[in-house]
Fold this protein.
Amino acid sequence: MSDRLFGEDVLFFQRLLKSEGFYRGALDGLWGRISEAAATAFDTEYEKLKDELGTFDRRTEQKISSLSIRAQREARKFMHRALSRGVNVKIISGTRTYQEQNQLFRQGRYGNPGPVITRARGGQSNHNFGIAWDIGIFREDGSYSTSQSDYDAVAEYAVGSLVWGGSWRSFKDSPHYQLATARTQVAWVRTRFEQGEAYVA
């Protein structure tokens, strides 16, 4: 399952797997038996977390499955806290490859349609390192809420190692949650990720 999450970007997936301790081969972008075994181990941990903490809607599960294992655990705990209090929340964005991030960056720029929704290029967002996700809150009629107060209200469920994007000063991002990293500089996280080394606090 996990080998399909990132399409043809094998190197990206190898980096994620290595930083998680699943992959011990070379970061060469070549899919072989070592990569396959690491992906299988990653999938096994994903299934264990589903059994332990429960499952959610299809879209949320797809986005959770793209995250690092520790982020998957924290995302599931967050979902449980919110849903148990009657908030209709879903995870609508998870890990993005550098290419996917660059495509998103182009939205609303260079004559492309849609609003500008990110200031980060590929490798400049914590979504690129398997530790960040965005939520959507939905009303009873199924419509997507854009109310700031709705997103502020669920921020209290970001406990422990979670960082809420709505607390940032320069660019508030209330639907955004991520794991705390050992250093806050994204450039440092990117270097560690690309070397297949751990970066979560």
